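== Fold encoding ==
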Amino acid sequence: SEPVQVSIDAEGKLYLTLGKAEREPIEREALVTKVSAFVASNPKVPVLIGGDQRIQYGQVFEIMVLLQQD
C-alpha cells in the first residue's frame, strides 16, 4: 500500500499525503487526527516524514513525537 507522507516546507508549514490522495496543507491538530485514523484502518502502512533541507531537524522531530503519542 502507498505510504502516509508528512512533509514540512521551508516556512514550517505541514502537508499530508494519505495513500494515493492529493498532497494537502494541514494544521498540526488535524494532522494527528487524520494520520491516526488512517493508520488505525491500515495498520501496516508506513508513515514517512520529510522536511525541507533549510528547516531545523527539531521541527521534524516534533512531528515524529506528535504522531507517536497516539
Observations:
- The CA atoms of residues 12 and 28 lie 11 Å apart.
- The helical segments are 28-41, 57-68.
